[in-house]
Amino acid sequence: MHNPIYQFQDKYDTKFSSDDKNQAIHALESGQVLLLPHCAFSVAQNEAFLLSPNTLAKNAKNVSYNTMNQKISGSDYQTEQRDILTHFMARYAKYAQDLIGNLLPHYKQHLTIGRTSFRPAEVKNRKTSYRKDDSRLHVDAFVSTPVQGLRILRVFCNINPEHMPRVWHLGEPFNDVAKRFLPSAQSYCSAKAKLLHKCKLTKSLRSAYDHYMLQLHDIMKKDTHYQNTVEKLRFEFQPNSTWIVFTDQASHAALSGQYLLEQTFYLPVEALQMPEKSPLRILETMTNMCLTTKA
Ligand SMILES: O=C(O)CCC(=O)C(=O)O
Ligand SMILES: [Fe+2]
User: Residue with the nearest Cα to atom 1 of ligand 1?
Assistant: First the structure.
């Protein structure tokens, strides 16, 4: 099996050598999870009360923070508690930005920051449709937020205070996922994409790339035989560790764990060192089509 994890030496975020930086880029762009076992976001004493399922609003899956307008969603906390939650999320966004700036300086000027997410619910007990079931192996693709070919780079940190790991499955390389499932994908229909946008079901026009990524996401999650039989690694991400991964490329699933922070970034394929390994270029080669309107 390919090794889905690249574990970094015991280091803190500011002292990365140029060798470290090259290895980090190579691992990430090859679809590996980059694990920093001793790099952690620290929860301040006055923030400790946030590590409770009560932080989450009734039907919300995550607490979400938008760095653009400093707004929180997914929590009913008010006044001082809400201010502390907002500050906590903003601090994590800064932690993730600093880490990426130090470890992946090549990406820095090309990155767009996305949502910050805090996940205070135990993932094991979640009951959902297969599509929303992140305990099934998948590559990330968003239903209502098209990326138009941008990469999805995510920084995770397990902040569980009770020594509980975040347990993931990591599956086969993107190339194998695409070879296996692209032949059963429905073709892209631009009229349907326009309609979805017109009806405000997508925030912008769903590109052919977004369509095929969603198809892969859905078809692989739906295939129970595949889920049960494909070669995969079960991995425990310990509390106070950080991991970085292109989640549009690395096949992953979350099995259990509680209290996770996550920061999303978007990166154009042109900013990669090895664009040919990106899902966009792989799918374009396989379909022999240009899958975004820009390129
Ligand atoms: O919550 C997790 O551990 C990961 C869920 C997931 O699939 C993701 O964030 O892309
Ligand atoms: Fe995911």
Answer: 254
Atom of ligand 1 at shortest range from CA of 166: 3
- Is residue 237 within 8 A of residue 165, CB to CB? The reply is yes
Question: What spacing in Å lies between the alpha carbon of 260 and ligand 2's midpoint?
Answer: 13
Q: Is 5-287 CATH 2.60.120?
A: yes
Distance 132 CA to ligand 2 centre (A): 10
The tens digit of pLDDT for each residue in 38-82 reads: 999 999 999 999 999 999 999 899 999 999 999 999 999 999 999
- Beta-carbon contacts of 152 under 8 Å, excluding residues fewer than 6 positions away, are 140, 246, 247, 248, 264, 265, 266
Separation of CA 65 and ligand 1 centre (Å): 16
Read off the pLDDT band of 295 (50, 70, 90).
very low
